[in-house]
Amino acid sequence: MGQVMGFNADAAGFQSARDMVTQMAESESAQLAGMARFMASQGLDARLRARDWTGFARRYNGPSYWKNAYDVKLKSAFEKFSSGISRDLRARAAQGALLFLGYNPGDPDGVLGQNTRRAIAAFRADAHLAAGDALDDAVFEAIMSRAGLAGG
């Protein structure tokens, strides 16, 4: 997710910085909605639609955006997520939990690639579950439970 500083709470559609923190802590949906409202209020949405990665990065990250290659990272992320490869939110949640648990599923991107499958297989072995690399319901629930996120 993007970052919105507390002094921009109003631009992000919140009553106050405290309201913003409270709502954003409740759900990823609130984070996404707040970020979208902030970007629209700053005219950043037009830069994204135009795929003006440099213009977006300069405006969002400041004049030193190039030091961290934010424009390059934005373009790369756009290409990755618009590639047509199907993304699975459940797989993404499992990847995040596996990462938290110390496994190495790679980027939490919602794709069950080889790194994620290796992490699932390692988790299964450590949890004394049947061997394999599939993310079935039982394995998903076990991963989430072990990460303290029972109920997925």
Give an overview in words:
The protein is 57% helix and 0% strand. It has eight helices and no strands. With 152 residues, the chain is an all-alpha fold. The model has no long low-confidence stretch (mean pLDDT 92). The two termini are 20 Å apart.
Core attributes:
mainly alpha; 152 residues; globular; 0% strand
Number of strands: 0
Helical content stands at 55-70%
**Shape, per Cα inertia axes:** globular
What does the radius of gyration come to?
Answer: 18 Å
In DSSP terms (H or I, runs of 4 or more residues), the helix count works out at 8
Oligomer: single chain
Q: Strand pairing plus helix content: what structural class?
A: mainly alpha
Mean pLDDT: 92
The largest β sheet comes out as: none
Strand residue content: under 5%
Order of secondary-structure elements: HHHHHHHH
Distance N to C terminus: 20 Å
- The unreliable regions are none
